[in-house]
Amino acid sequence: MAVDTERVSALTRELLIAIGEDPDRPGLRETPQRVADAAAEFYGGIGRDPEEPLRRTIDVSQGPAPDTVSTGAVLVRDIRFRSICEHHLLPFAGRAHIAYLPGERVVGIGALAKVLDIVAARPQVQERLGEQLADAIENALEARGVFVMLDASHECLTMRGDRRPDATTVTVASRGELASEAARAEMAAYVIIGVQNQATDNPVSGRE
């Protein structure tokens, strides 16, 4: 079901009136349509199947040697994402780190980011977003294990209420062979090593 942009535009105009603004003044005349266009992007994942990007797979069981099946995890770090918190309809954004233990089939690494885009483009809470992402990968790929870590900053925390601008939230979802405490710790270590290496390669300039 597509976002009803005409209705969103009309309701945005009503919202501007409700907060005491004049939607016909020059700076706000185009705002209802801009908000409607943004809503179509932010909520475009509603009703979409997150497993769809994973349906084109690559068979790794037929390699240069017999029974060439991956034995280790595939980990993609630092995938930027943004979503909308369903509690206040304010954005939250950060980085996702996704790992899975393949069976006989793998996908192009870009497909994992596309699944993330779909589950993020709907009103969300971070905990559920990670679980939906893990479920989609496990189900579509029949993966032996899945690990998803999300690290995000929430504007409902940074811009309102107590206003904690430096706070971020980390959540983990895991499945199968990557759900054990040892496996989760190993995957988290790989993520942390990557973050540390990135900080070393890109030092903050201008420090005293």
From TrEMBL:
Pathway: Cofactor biosynthesis; 7,8-dihydroneopterin triphosphate biosynthesis; 7,8-dihydroneopterin triphosphate from GTP: step 1/1. It holds the Pfam family GTP_cyclohydroI. The keyword Nucleotide-binding applies. Zn(2+) binds at residues 85, 88, 156. It comes from the Bacteria. One of its GO terms (molecular function) is GTP cyclohydrolase I activity. Keywords: GTP-binding, Hydrolase, Metal-binding, Nucleotide-binding, One-carbon metabolism, Zinc. Residues 11-187 form the GTP cyclohydrolase I domain. Its EC number is 3.5.4.16. This is GTP cyclohydrolase 1. Belongs to the GTP cyclohydrolase I family. It is an enzyme of class 3 (hydrolase). It catalyses: GTP + H2O = 7,8-dihydroneopterin 3'-triphosphate + formate + H(+). It comes from Microbacterium amylolyticum. The gene is folE. Homopolymer.
